[in-house]
Design goal:
homodimer; mainly alpha; Transcription Regulator spoIIAA; six-stranded mixed sheet; 25 helices; 6 strands; 59% helix; 4% strand; elongated; transmembrane (chains A, B); symporter activity (chains A, B); STAS_dom_sf (chains A, B); membrane (chains A, B); sulfate transport (chains A, B)
């Protein structure tokens, strides 16, 4: 019998040319444990570039990792400066009106929006790794702060507490983001899928636009809620309060902004038109109010703005307030969403960063230029905003928000993946009709449900033989395939886990039943072999192995032989440890479906397959 | 160019013998939606047996489905009755002491335990589908009711309210089980894996055994908590209260019970010894107390039991009590656990059912016999239990519970699957050190985390060529495989979903980096092709497609060609709808890794691979 490992009396003539299936060599538990930890938490192998370097080189590389300015700084040229100057001033002209507008979204003093475009860009210039990114205020995060804190504390009635809570919330947002990075659990953000982000952003943008109805219509009283029903009820319950002056002004400016954006989109060379448009509307609007004294005819203006720079506000954190949990919750959600938004849209720059890129920035120095421009504004130009009408800010916000409602992406989701579309709509409807948290929870729940459903209800399908080949593929996908008489080949398309083992047992029994019924009705040869193609079974747990043992019993009872094809490394390891390889017989595990079929056919035509005495022979124990 | 679909200028000489990859024919949305709903909720196709039957036959089959007695009743013979009589009396002798003991676990009057072995078996005999199952009290469910309700209401201080809450809880347990069945969402139970059940049952059994220390040591005061720390503190804080008479009696009876079980396990023919042992200990214990008047010397006895049958207790449900939520929660958890226990152990009968099977029952009629025997006991024999010492009941419970601590299964889990072992231990420790709910939540959380981790961190590995074949397999599992010069073949071992698309992008880039570094250091031919084996990619969502698009950009930038091998039906459908097939080029998708490698090799030796002008040719748009 020679090569005892792979030659078996009953099939030896065939077995000699078949490939054996390997059980991977056993690994010490702690080594494999360490490996899987590493793969889970350090998939990017962050220390790779430090390998095989001298200690001083390692130190320098480490410093560069934290301060990328050390990398590009020494190579900085006057040519770069010229480009960065132009792009920096361009993004400043966008950042200033955005800063003032988005601060209003968060119910914070407009001046704070300008601070966000002043200090953070300076820090980013030293520590940031992207040269195109333009740091500043973000609409959705501003809205989140505004709506979540606004539920608890009224910003107009209690401005100091509200301000302090906002500081505290941003502190926790930063703390969360830093911990996610340091603890290497950024993959939590992965659970916010692309579809979730599209729906969520669209919903948030819709909510923000609805909020602007207050400014556009010049209303004095407005609901604290953000859901569409409350907002529309609030708007239409005070139709007599609508200010037509304000409305007309808003519509005109919005039209101008949208037109400039449309034009820039059509002719990318004129990107600066849409970049300059917000500042232009601010200047035009302020001039118009100043000249016509419209502030006395129902057009609200920003009013007095504090000039100069604020002292640092470390002392303003409130860690002892009864509202601390609100601040922490707001911070956490804002942090997660901002991170997810950053990652999701990071690869196709948005708004301000797109402008920065188009303006030809060369390094993060453009952020420094922007910061200086904003500082200049803070120090000397704030009085100029006194006459800026609020309706202009609303128009700027609406115009920016319309860009976030990515209906084309939603249509694409519908076309490509209905489930993703449902996730997207769940997030959108949740945000618009309830609240941001509800939208988020709905979308994540649907997404995770989909993952669990994928595992709980894996696809199983029948394979057939591609004519004139030894290739076996799904009979549904390849209708030209031929059945193999007497053999049922099933593919299981997911790992076999506790969550699907009951289902798979039911489903496999049904496949066998149906195949037997079919063969009976056509009067063909009866079923003799069931081959499982395990190529797509990435892993198996103990519940899965029990399932296989039960299926083996079922097939034995019906006089069928169970054959496995191409089990992977993990599966073979577990089948070996649980002795299932001995149960099924090592000679019934093949490397490819083709070889399994060939072996079955060989036996089918030389001897009866249910030679049960074979099972008791010693070679099964090899 | 003839057959324009599959012949491409640059590779046509090879392409002609390669197999095309099919995009499955488009299916109407509602048809595929209906199909997936059906697969999710009706995997067993319950109406299969009704197909192609006359209406009257359908009605009869449906009636038989609900009342299996209609199936076996007409075929019932005197021979069957003889067997069922013997097995029915045997299980009654086990059910009576079990009923009284388990009622004590639930802090309910012992008589109620007997009712459970009287009415339910009669119903089961008509409607049950298993002939071996012996209906009756279940230890873990009894413990759950006792511990969860006991947290809220003291059974000794407020027995009527407690009793009514227990009724209400069992009502909701039944309601839940019925709804799970009717709504076809029984798969919720699948999320309690085998490992969870082993750990949970072991933990519950440990808790029950700890509770018996009260009875064994004859303690009058005892903690209401079930966690090990409270119980041990309660036991050891009153060492001076221990009753040695009680302890000695308990130890002797426990030893006898364990010995009989050990003996029956070694010699299955004498199963009746362990089946009769509990009743024997009850009789012996009662006789002993009666003769020695031990009840006056520190051995507690059951005392007076109500004789006769109770009226129906429909009126005793309390739907208005402030404790309703407790009752509902208790009912829900008890219902889920009982169901999971039933399903998990259903295939290797436990305790009472094993005895029924061994005693040779033929039909569910054995349950009727048991019910009659129990009724007889209720009507005439309850006074005999007056002198039954509580310590005997404790010994019976401990002996039964020791059988539920399946340490061999836990060792098996450790050997086969470390993760399952962690799940099992999580459930065990949670139940023993905190509470049943905590144990359950821990185990389910770890299990679901594992599923999510499987999807979030899929395996990717390099494939090599098995010598003298066109088979490509993992180089780790098959160390004899050879590298293919200039080609990196990667296998992705899970569906590509939002949860893993970021990870996969990182990991794939790293594989390419590492391969290029390796080739550079050995000075071999540079990398030209990257082939993804998609055999194990069961599905892809829009985030996954974006990932592929990004990877395509990365490979393009490095002058590498991206090639796909064997994408499945779902994947091809999505790639087609999202136009990724056009992006990658239809001629770069092959049916097998072997054919993909052959085509790459062909090109590698005839022309340069990064002939970028090729991408702009019209045939890409086919």
């Amino acid at each position: 019998m020679g090569n005892a490992d792979y030659v078996y009396p009953s099939t030896n003539e065939y077995r000699q040319c078949a490939h054996p299936v390997a059980v991977p060599p056993p690994q010490p538990f702690f080594k494999s444990f360490k490996n899987s930890l590493k793969e889970t938490f350090f998939p990017d192998d962050p220390l790779r570039q430090f390998k095989n370097k001298t200690p001083s080189r390692k130190f320098f590389l480490g410093l560069q990792y934290f301060l990328p300015i050390l990398e590009w700084g020494p190579r900085y040229t006057f040519q770069f400066l010229k480009s960065d100057l132009i792009s920096g001033i361009t993004i400043a002209s966008l950042a200033i009106p955005q800063g003032i507008s988005y601060a209003k979204l968060a119910n914070l003093p407009p001046i704070l929006g300008l601070y966000s475009s002043f200090i953070p860009p300076l820090i980013y210039a030293m520590m940031g790794s992207s040269r195109d990114l333009a740091v500043g205020t973000v609409a959705v995060a501003s809205l989140l702060i505004g709506s979540m804190l606004g539920d608890e504390v009224n910003a107009t009635e209690n401005p100091t507490l509200y301000l302090h809570l906002a500081f505290t919330a941003t502190f926790f947002a930063g703390l969360l983001q830093a911990s996610l990075g340091l603890l290497r659990v950024g993959f939590i953000v992965d659970f916010l899928s692309h579809a979730t982000i599209v729906g969520f952003m669209g919903g948030a943008a819709t909510v923000v636009i609805l909020q602007q109805l207050k400014g556009i219509l010049g209303l004095q009283h407005f609901t604290q809620s953000t859901d569409i029903i409350s907002v529309l009820r609030s708007v239409f319950s005070q139709i007599h309060e609508w200010r037509w002056e304000s409305g007309v002004l808003g519509a005109v400016f919005l039209f101008f902004l949208l037109l400039s954006r449309y034009f820039s989109k059509r002719r990318p060379k004129f990107f600066w038109i849409s970049a300059m448009a917000p500042l232009t509307t601010v200047i035009l609007g302020s001039l118009l109010v100043y000249l016509t004294h419209a502030e006395k005819h129902g057009v609200d203006v920003i009013g007095n703005l504090k000039k100069g720079l604020n002292p640092p506000s470390f002392g303003d954190f409130v860690f002892t307030s009864p509202y601390l949990t609100t601040a922490v919750k707001t911070g956490m959600i804002t942090g997660i969403i901002a991170l997810a938004e950053g990652i999701a849209v990071g690869r196709r720059p948005f708004s301000r960063s797109a402008v920065n890129f188009n303006a030809g920035c060369k390094t993060a120095m453009s952020n420094v230029v922007m910061a200086i421009a904003v500082m200049f504004t803070l120090l000397f130009l704030t009085p100029l905003f006194h006459y800026t009408p609020l309706v202009v800010l609303s128009a700027i916000i609406i115009s920016a928000m319309l860009g976030l409602i990515d209906y084309e992406a939603a249509i694409h989701l519908w076309k490509v993946d209905k489930f993703d579309f449902v996730v997207c709509m769940g997030a959108y409807i949740g945000v618009v009709f309830a609240s941001v948290e509800v939208g988020l929870v709905i979308a994540v729940a649907i997404s995770v449900l989909r993952l669990l459903l994928f595992v709980a209800r894996p696809k199983t399908f029948v394979l057939g033989n591609l004519p004139n080949s030894t290739i076996y593929r799904s009979v549904e996908q390849y209708p030209t395939t031929n059945d193999v008489p007497g053999i049922l080949i099933l593919q299981i398309d997911a790992p076999i886990y506790f969550a699907n083992s009951s289902y798979l047992r039911e489903r496999i029994s049904r496949w066998i039943d149906e195949e037997e019924d079919k063969l009976k009705s056509t009067g063909e040869t009866s079923l003799q072999y069931v081959i499982f193609n395990m190529s797509a079974v990435g892993n198996i747990d103990t519940s899965g192995i029990s399932m296989l043992e039960e299926v083996k019993k079922i097939t034995d009872r019906r006089g069928l032989k169970l054959v496995l094809a191409n089990p992977g490394a993990e599966v073979m390891k577990k089948l070996n440890k649980s002795k299932f390889i001995e149960t099924i017989g090592k000679e019934w595990i093949y490397l490819t479906v083709g070889e399994a079929v060939e072996a079955c056919n060989y036996k089918l035509h030389t001897c009866k397959p249910d030679a049960t005495n074979e099972d008791s022979q010693p070679w099964n124990k090899v």
